[in-house]
């Protein structure tokens, strides 16, 4: 028998302290006076002095970062704000527009769709951050870049390294401008991003696959002390603007003119016609 | 040797499905004159089968046996309304009272229901747990898990396995009662084997104030119905939807003042 017994369990008294009461470690509203966020006065300290991205990071992580760091995150959001309705989350926004939903439903649907294991700026942060942190640990133990890459599974002849594979196109056009911006803002490349670049060079040479924007975002964020969970929270809504754009595009057009499908555009691969007995 | 550079994944030219076939009209290929669900004509299903039968067919590809249909229907009644204190219903009710667009009410509730705590994610985890262990002796397994676990140091509920644990520091009577009902209804058949296994499992847990949780009931039923874990997780959202909607719609007809708003003295900012 186990060593557990009833006396080790809570009673419902534990829940009573929370009944009809909110304890917030984030902040709150003092009606008619001010609003507080992690000890900062929003009305008298933050408003007018910080950017919206600084506020997003503060609310998501509790850290009030410098403006130049927030500007990098701002740019990362822009990198996921494509008005191209072929991208899955944007396509959902476009379908909503074509179906005449409201913009909020469309945008939220797109954000949810980007919370994916394979693309988008949110859920993939967890794996992407773990990948670069594990890689750095291995690298510091003198593993070669080739050995680090070998640790990852291979699909369709390509190593599936989070942050280095794109479903559609190998080269990510966003990396060079982000590095250029980082340089312009005077933010040094530190150990995670330095290693990420080496992995990118190796993969480009051997597989034609460089670092993608996720890999950059994770390495950059790791260099600045963010965890994967924190990055996930900061970037939870990062695709919203592109989704809205694609919604607006189709909302203004004739319903169902966005990629209409004929019956034979769907390939039926199931059981042949049968009757109920 | 340098590998062949492959920069694009291979995308299909068409979307594929085994579920639904649409026979196009001769004069307009965008319109379907007949539809078949896993090979059965929709019109024949409408004529001869119940909603439960067709729902099961839709998610499993097979028509249910009589007992499977009974079990699914009973589970759907069990989960139809999780009650006004369940977080998913509360989220939708809050949206209702604050006059959110009616069409957003159900999605809001379902997103809340998608959580890992007593939500649809737990159903999938619980189904995996049950699939892995339902051939084990439930009493030996329960004892083994308890002996390897310790009550979490952080106060709150203890979930000893997905779908099993305490609720508000005690045994939630409702799911435990439902589990007994489901197993008794089909007592003389093999249709509710996993639920019966779970009843034996919780017999050992009870002395530790642990029992069935609602996602566990749904999970065990879906395992008994031969439904896959991912499908089970999503079906849980579907079958919990009526209660979410009903409670939210009820609140939507009321003034915003009909729900408590926590007063300043009960809003404590901690640093």
What does this molecule look like?
The complex is a heterodimer of chains A (277) and B (271). Chain A is mainly alpha-helical and 277 residues long. Among the domains of chain A are: 11-66, no CATH class; 124-234, Orthogonal Bundle (Cytochrome p450-Terp, domain 2), CATH 1.10.230. Chain A contains 13 helices and seven strands. Chain A has helices at 13-16, 42-46, 52-61, 67-78, 88-98, 103-113, 124-140, 145-150, 175-184, 191-207, 213-223, 228-234, 240-251; strands spanning 22-24, 27-30, 34-37, 40-41, 154-155, 158-159, 266-268. In chain A, the strands form two sheets. In chain A, strands 2-3-4 form a three-stranded antiparallel sheet. In chain A, strands 5-6 form a two-stranded antiparallel sheet. In chain A, a hairpin with a 2-residue loop joins strand 5 (154-155) and strand 6. The longest helix of chain A has 17 residues, at 124-140. Residues 1-9 of chain A have low confidence and may be disordered. By secondary structure, chain B is mainly alpha-helical. Chain B has two domains: 20-64, no CATH class; 77-252. Chain B contains eleven helices and seven strands. Chain B has helices at 42-48, 51-60, 66-79, 87-97, 102-113, 120-133, 138-148, 173-185, 193-205, 214-224, 229-252; strands spanning 15-17, 20-24, 32-37, 40-41, 164-165, 211-212, 267-269. In chain B, strand 3 and strand 4 form a beta hairpin.
């Amino acid at each position: 028998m186990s060593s557990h017994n009833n006396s080790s369990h809570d009673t419902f008294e534990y829940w009573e302290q929370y009944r009809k009461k909110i304890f917030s470690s984030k902040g709150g509203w003092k009606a008619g006076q001010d609003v507080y966020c992690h000890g900062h006065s929003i009305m008298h300290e933050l408003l007018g002095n910080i950017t919206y991205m600084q506020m997003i990071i503060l609310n998501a992580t509790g850290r009030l970062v410098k403006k130049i760091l927030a500007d990098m995150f701002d740019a990362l959001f822009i990198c996921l704000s494509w008005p191209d309705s072929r991208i899955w989350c944007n396509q959902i926004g476009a379908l909503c527009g074509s179906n005449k939903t409201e913009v909020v439903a469309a945008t939220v649907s797109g954000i949810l769709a980007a919370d994916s294991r394979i693309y988008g700026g949110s859920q993939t942060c967890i794996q992407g951050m773990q990948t670069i942190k594990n890689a750095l640990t291995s690298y510091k133990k003198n593993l070669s870049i080739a050995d680090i890459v070998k640790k990852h599974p291979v699909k369709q002849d390509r190593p599936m390294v989070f942050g280095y594979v794109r479903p559609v196109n190998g080269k990510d056009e966003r990396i060079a401008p982000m590095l250029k911006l980082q340089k312009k803002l005077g933010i040094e490349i530190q150990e995670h991003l330095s290693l990420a670049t080496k992995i990118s060079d190796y993969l480009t040479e051997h597989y034609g696959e460089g670092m993608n924007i996720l890999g950059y975002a994770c390495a950059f964020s790791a260099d600045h002390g963010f965890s994967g969970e924190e990055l996930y929270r900061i970037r939870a809504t990062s695709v919203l603007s592109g989704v809205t754009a694609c919604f607006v595009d189709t909302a203004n057009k004739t319903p169902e003119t966005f990629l209409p499908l004929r019956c034979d555009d769907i390939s039926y691969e199931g059981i042949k016609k049968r009757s109920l007995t | 040797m340098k590998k062949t550079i492959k920069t694009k994944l291979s995308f299909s030219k068409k979307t594929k499905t085994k579920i639904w076939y649409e026979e196009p009209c001769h004069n307009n290929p965008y319109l379907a004159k007949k539809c078949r669900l896993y090979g059965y004509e929709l019109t024949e299903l409408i004529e001869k089968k119940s909603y439960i039968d067709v729902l099961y067919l839709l998610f499993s590809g097979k028509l249910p046996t009589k007992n499977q249909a009974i079990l699914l229907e009973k589970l759907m009644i069990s989960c139809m309304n999780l009650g006004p204190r369940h977080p998913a219903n509360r989220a939708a009710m809050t949206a209702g009272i604050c006059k959110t667009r009616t069409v957003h009410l159900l999605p809001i509730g379902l997103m809340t229901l998608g959580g890992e705590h007593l939500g649809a994610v737990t159903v999938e985890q619980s189904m995996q747990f049950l699939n892995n262990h339902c051939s084990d002796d439930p009493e030996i397994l329960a004892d083994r898990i308890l002996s390897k676990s310790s009550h979490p140091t952080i106060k709150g509920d203890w979930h000893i396995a997905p779908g099993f644990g305490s609720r508000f520091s005690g045994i939630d009577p409702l799911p435990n009662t439902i589990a007994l009902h489901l197993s008794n209804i089909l007592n003389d058949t093999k249709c509710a084997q996993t639920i019966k296994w779970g009843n034996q499992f919780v017999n050992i847990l009870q002395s530790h104030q642990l029992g069935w949780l609602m996602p566990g009931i749904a999970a065990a039923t879906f395992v008994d119905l031969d439904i896959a874990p991912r499908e089970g997780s999503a079906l849980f959202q579907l079958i919990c939807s009526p209660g979410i909607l009903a409670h939210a719609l009820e609140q939507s007809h009321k003034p915003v003042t009909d729900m408590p708003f926590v007063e300043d003295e009960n809003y404590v900012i901690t640093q």
